[in-house]
């Protein structure tokens, strides 16, 4: 399902007229990649996939060309400094996995495993497409 | 809102750590002590970053491919017919 969603998104990008600039198209493809990951049936119930979709929608609503949000709305979640029982590096992981900041440590590990699997599948899919269409 | 202290067992954490170990390359180490958990988290962070970089790179190359399609009509027709739903 991840593959199908991505292929459909690629088809829409390919059909777009007028043809976008290279950098704009790269951004659209990247957006489609992450959207496909979030929509895959395995992960649609996951916290990371909902957080990722929310982030993607926020980016789409901004002026095109801006990749980072300038103003960040601060949500008060469990204070990050009060997690001494976690190993070091858990905080970095929380920043990498979408929605990671608010998760319990156990959930973070589970979500990370799922996120990594989806990322890997997406990379393999894109590589396969490139190989198929480049030869 | 009081912080919920869920009783997650050491065993469950270890299980998840094993799962991550199996997913992340170069992290096939035994033991689930705190030091190796830290190392595994570090490897996982690096792995996620490298996968995200790959997505960026592959997006760029796919974009090149599509740009090439504009110029090569025979190839473009084949690709379009495959992608069209």
Describe this structure in words.
The complex is a heterodimer of chains A (135) and B (85). Chain A is mainly α and 135 residues long. Chain A is 62% helix and 0% strand. Chain A starts with a helix and ends with a helix. The model of chain A has no long low-confidence stretch (mean pLDDT 82). In chain B, helix 2 packs across helix 3 (73-83). Chain B starts with 9 loop residues before the first helix and ends with a helix. Mean pLDDT of chain B is 75; it is low at 1-6. At the A-B interface, helix 1, helix 2, helix 4 and helix 5 of A face helix 1, helix 2 and helix 3 of B.
Put the structure in a nutshell.
Chain A: One of its GO terms (biological process) is regulation of DNA-templated transcription. With 135 residues, chain A is an all-alpha fold.
Q: How many H/I helical runs of chain B?
A: 3
Give the largest interface.
A-B, 45 and 45 residues
Poorly predicted tracts of residues of chain A: none
Which geometry of chain A do the CA atoms define? elongated
Oligomer: heterodimer
**What is the helix/strand order of chain B?**
HHH
Strand content of chain A: under 5%
The major β-sheet of chain A equals: none
Q: Count of helices of chain A?
A: 5
- The count of strands of chain A amounts to 0
What is the overall shape of chain B? elongated
Note the main sheet of chain B: none
Radius of gyration of chain A: 17 Å
Are there runs of chain B of 5+ residues with pLDDT below 50, and where? 1-6
Helix content of chain B: over 70%
Overall average pLDDT of chain A = 82
- End-to-end distance of chain A: 25 Å
Rg for CA atoms of chain B: 22 Å
Order of helices and strands of chain A: HHHHH
Sheet/helix structural class of chain B: mainly alpha
**Strand portion of chain B:** under 5%
């Amino acid at each position: 399902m991840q593959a199908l969603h991505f292929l459909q998104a690629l088809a829409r990008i390919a059909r777009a007229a007028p043809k976008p600039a290279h950098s704009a198209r790269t951004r659209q493809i990247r957006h489609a990649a992450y959207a496909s990951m979030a929509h895959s049936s395995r992960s649609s119930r996951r916290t990371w996939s909902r957080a990722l979709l929310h982030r993607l929608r926020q980016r789409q609503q901004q002026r095109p060309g801006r990749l980072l949000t300038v103003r960040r709305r601060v949500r008060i979640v469990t204070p990050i400094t009060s997690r001494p029982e976690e190993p070091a590096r858990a905080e970095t992981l929380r920043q990498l996995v979408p929605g990671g900041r608010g998760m319990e440590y156990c959930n973070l590990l589970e979500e990370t495993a799922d996120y990594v699997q989806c990322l890997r599948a997406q990379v393999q899919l894109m590589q396969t497409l490139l190989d198929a269409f480049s030869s | 809102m009081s912080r919920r202290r869920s009783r997650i067992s050491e065993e469950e954490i270890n299980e998840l750590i094993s799962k991550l170990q199996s997913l992340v390359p170069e992290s096939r180490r035994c033991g689930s002590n705190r030091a190796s958990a830290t190392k595994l988290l570090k490897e996982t962070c690096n792995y996620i970053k490298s996968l995200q970089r790959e997505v960026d790179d592959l997006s760029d190359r796919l974009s090149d491919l599509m740009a090439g399609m504009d110029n090569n009509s025979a190839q473009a027709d084949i690709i379009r017919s495959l992608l069209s739903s």
